Amino acid sequence: QVQLVESGGGLVQPGGSLRLSCAASGFAFATYGISWYRQAPGKGRGLVASISDTGGSTYYADSVKDRFTISRDNSKNTVYLQMSSLKPEDTAMYYCNARRYWGQGTQVTVSS
Hints:
By secondary structure, this protein is mainly β. The protein is 0% helix and 51% strand. It has strands spanning 3-7, 10-12, 18-25, 34-39, 46-51, 58-60, 68-73, 78-83, 92-98, 101-102, 106-110. Strands 2, 4, 5, 6, 9, 10 and 11 form a seven-stranded mixed beta sheet that branches. Strands 1-3-8-7 form a four-stranded antiparallel beta sheet, with no helix packed on it. The protein starts with a strand and ends with a strand.
């Protein structure tokens, strides 16, 4: 069956870095664009970054531009989200998405 498994979340101080991973299985990963979304407590789920099937095209929300980098390794069926210069407002559950498929999320908390 289709699985998207996020990992790499945790507690980090402001200004720190984390790398999230999304390991996919059960579908033709290399033909899907993949996105990262996030949802903070009491807020809706919003798009953070997207990457095309080949990795040749990316999109970033304005709030994370120049701080986050999305990438993928189709040989490993994995998408990454490198997050740097983290801010408290980046605190949220981060979800991996491939069209109608969603992962279970990984929590990122930015706090001193």
